[in-house]
Every structure is written in C-alpha cells, then in structure tokens.
Amino acid sequence: MSNKKPELIDMLLITTNPYDFHFVSQGEITVPSIDDQEELMATDSAIDILGFSADEKTAIYKLTGAVMHYGNLKFKQKQREEQAEPDGTEGIGRVSKLSKRESLCHKTFRL
C-alpha cells in the first residue's frame, strides 16, 4: 500500500489508503521507525533470494491481496437459520479474481 511498486496496487485491486481495509487498519497504521516502502522492497528481495519463481511471487502477493479483501466481506444471518450468507457481492468478485489460480499454498505447503 506504500505505492513503492504501483503495479501491485492495480494487480491486487487495492488502494493506497489502509483505512479501506479492515484487517490492515485495526492497529497502528504508521510507525515512525519503520519505512513501509523500504520494508516492501526488502520483502520483495527476500522472496527472490528464497528462490521463488515469478509466478509464485505473484501468487504470494495475490493471496495477500485476497486476504485484505476477505476482511471487508460482510455477512448477514439467514432468516430462521443459524447460518450466514454474503451481504452483497462487491468484495467477493475481488477475492475470486485474486485467488482463482493461486495454487501456491497447495504446492508449497501441501494443504
């Protein structure tokens, strides 16, 4: 979200505003001793050093984006049932788009 790699903003269907994402905005948004842009580049470099392929690296980012969008999903209780159902479809499309081809967790961690 630091916009150091603007292509990630578009690819992950996110904004640069942390308050747009429930999971991201529940704690301290900025920490004076941490440079978010520098941390992103260090993380990006670490993924390369660990030997992940370009496709796996993209999958890591997309799964992270999907989790951010999961945090924004709203649910409502079904009438006369103890189940919930989605309250709208806006975020579901984003989650689906980001996670539809991501088999990294199955490949790497054998889930």
From TrEMBL:
InterPro entries: Myosin_head_motor_dom-like, P-loop_NTPase. Keywords: Actin-binding, ATP-binding, Coiled coil, Motor protein, Myosin, Nucleotide-binding. Pfam families: Myosin_head. Residues 1-111 form the Myosin motor domain. It comes from the Eukaryota. Belongs to the TRAFAC class myosin-kinesin ATPase superfamily. Myosin family. This is Myosin motor domain-containing protein. It comes from Willisornis vidua. The lineage of its organism: Eukaryota, Metazoa, Chordata, Craniata, Vertebrata.
